[in-house]
Design brief:
By secondary structure, the chain is mainly alpha-helical. It is built from twelve helices and four strands. Strand 3 (132-133) and strand 4 (136-137) form a beta hairpin.
Length: 214
Amino acid sequence: MNPTFIIWGLILITSLISFLGLQKGKIFEQYKYNVGAVKNGEYYRLLSSGFLHGDFMHLFFNMFSLYLFSGVIFHYFSTTEFLLIYFGSVLAGNIFTQFIFKNKNYYSAIGASGGVAGIIFASVMLDPAAVNINFLPGYLFGALYFGYSVYMLTKNGIGDGIGHAAHLGGAIFGMLYCVALKFNIVASNAIYTGIMSIPLVYLAYLIFIKKKQF
């Protein structure tokens, strides 16, 4: 299938559903991600929330970022794999959020940020020195991004209104997908990806060794 059709189709569908959700509060409430609702078996929210956004700027930045980094993914992967990375990252971001905030039934979230993070960091894994983000090599941006996300997650939890857990979960899925399917390429960039992953190693230490509660 044509990559241009896939990316613009995804942007169009997400935009339409987001606008519909903003216009109709009942739809917004029914399909947003919520810890308590997922516990009660409404698992569809793990994916449906990725089609909702809080406002136009939230939608624009997610879709613009998705468009910018899709080209790298399409260069290395098929259109089917692109969709697997994107939707897998949306799911992984919300599943990781469910794990982190499992004791906070009230916690809710919306947005495609987990999926977009998966696409961005899959791109960085494939070419961490050449992919530039905000005038920085991808691996340096990644190290700073992950460091900030981990810091805010551990210090403020849900206090700043940003879904750091979803971003981290989505990014990790995109990275692991590249490790699994493009290992030789990833291995050739091990120094760069190792530097980028230091904050993630620290987060794993907090979760699995220190047993930190969020």
